[in-house]
Amino acid sequence: MISRLEPVKNIKAVLNVMKRLVKLNHKVHLTIAGSGSLDKELRDQVKHQKLDNHVNFIGFITDPYPHLLTSDLYVLNSFTEGFSNSLVEAMYSRTPALSTSVGSVPEIIKDGENGFLVEPDNEDLLVDKILEIMKTPKGHLLQIGKSGHKTVVNNFSLEKHIFELMKIYKN
Q1: Residue 1: inside a domain, yes or no?
Q2: 0.85 cut: is pTM over it?
């Protein structure tokens, strides 16, 4: 996860999901990059849930790509979202992305094609979706990552943005 550590991002639920996955004996690890008002509370939750060996906080980062390129999955679990730069960065890096279906996300991700979607604020659905992703063949996940990259390049690149702005100004 690359996120502001704020209530709207619903990171507490992701930690609850991690606890459930660990309890089911799945080998999972979550790296959380970012800072915010919930930093101490989230770290305390990790300690309380005995997730120290499964969750790592790396704080604010300026370059997400080294982390994204070594990740199997990017998770965005927000209650609400506008246009998520971190989601687009993850997709650009070819990292399969899982997000709640909020804000502009459903315009970016087509579930199972270029990423994965879940309804917001539902830990059961989030667990089920992560388990489904974990069972997905590696080759298919690579294809989803490539499709996510293609979506970003074709629709959200700087060149595309400038082209669309120029169309507006010309009219």
Answers
A1: no
A2: yes
Which residues lie closer than 8 Å to 154 by C-beta, 6 or more apart? 160
Classify 90 as helix, strand or coil.
Answer: helix
Domain at 16, CATH number:
3.40.50.2000
Structural domain boundaries, residue 103? 7-170
pLDDT exceeds cutoff 80 at 157: no
Cα distance between residue 48 and residue 6, in whole Å: 19
164 against 134, higher pLDDT: 134
- The number of distinct structural domains making up the chain is 1
Angle at 71 between CA 97 and CA 58, to 5 degrees: 105
Nearest of 114, 108, 59 to residue 82 by alpha carbon: 108
Residues 6+ apart with CB under 8 A from 100: 10, 76, 77, 78, 79, 81, 117, 118, 119, 120, 121
